[in-house]
Amino acid sequence: PLGAFIVWRRMAYFGDTLAHSGLLGIVLGTVLNLNLQLGVAITCLVVALVLVLLQRQRRLATDTLLGILAHTTLSLGLVALAFLETVRVDLVGYLFGDILAISPNDLYWIWGGVLLALAALVWLWRPLLAATVHEELAQVEGVPVFAVRLAFMLLIAIVIATAMKVVGILLITSLLIIPAAAARRFARSPEGMALLASGLGCAAVGAGLWASLRWDTPAGPSVVVAAAALFVLGHAIPSRSRH
Fold it and tell me: CA–CA separation, 119 vs 50, rounded Å?
């Protein structure tokens, strides 16, 4: 469901920026001896707050700020990892996902993150939808737009931290937006699009993991390819005209 809001708010590149900063979170978690998912979530939230503050200035466009933050945080993470000579980090696994590296402790974090994100999204659904449709009107109606925006960014950070070992921090945004983009063509309501996007996302994960086991391909890219195949298939099926 979160991907639907990313598509509606045209924040795909914003999600990419947070995902790229996840590598810096891995370094933070390693240095401070924290759980890596927690380190990624903290870093993503800090980057989101910095972006919100920088958006208030009018010298640089938002897409320029996103590009600067995305590549700077990714590069900082890679440089910092180079200095951690005594620590062995599976860089490819974190960038592109490695389901075989998931431990029982990771499963607890994944389930906890999923339940927390779903509960928060249900609670935020109406104000977030109102702010997505028209921020100024929502603010007039009493919706705390700034707080809702920060909560939405926190949700994205939680999802990125939760799914990074399955799909990888470089591919997680695609798993959020591709099912939502595929569902948009057939949905008749926001709730319908969110539910359909969730179903397509689950189908993509199942198909991608099956393909990974069947042909010994990387799990993360296989899931994204499956999602892209569903997107193409969805656009090949004629939709009913809307009146």
Answer: 26
- Examine residue 78 and state whether it is found in any structural domain, yes or no: yes
**pLDDT, tens digit, for every residue of 85-139?**
777 777 787 888 777 778 888 788 888 888 998 999 999 999 999 999 988 899 9
Q: Please check whether residue 150 lies inside any domain of the structure.
A: yes
Give Rg (Cα) of the chain.
18
Domain containing residue 56: 2-168
Indicate whether 24 belongs to any domain.
yes
pLDDT, tens only, 199-243: 999 999 999 989 988 998 888 889 999 999 999 998 888 765 444
Spatial contact of 12 and 179, defined as CB atoms under 8 Å apart: no
pTM score, two decimals? 0.86
The CATH number assigned to the domain holding 84 equals: 1.10.3470.10
Share of the chain above pLDDT 90, in %: 25
Residue 178 in any domain: the answer is no
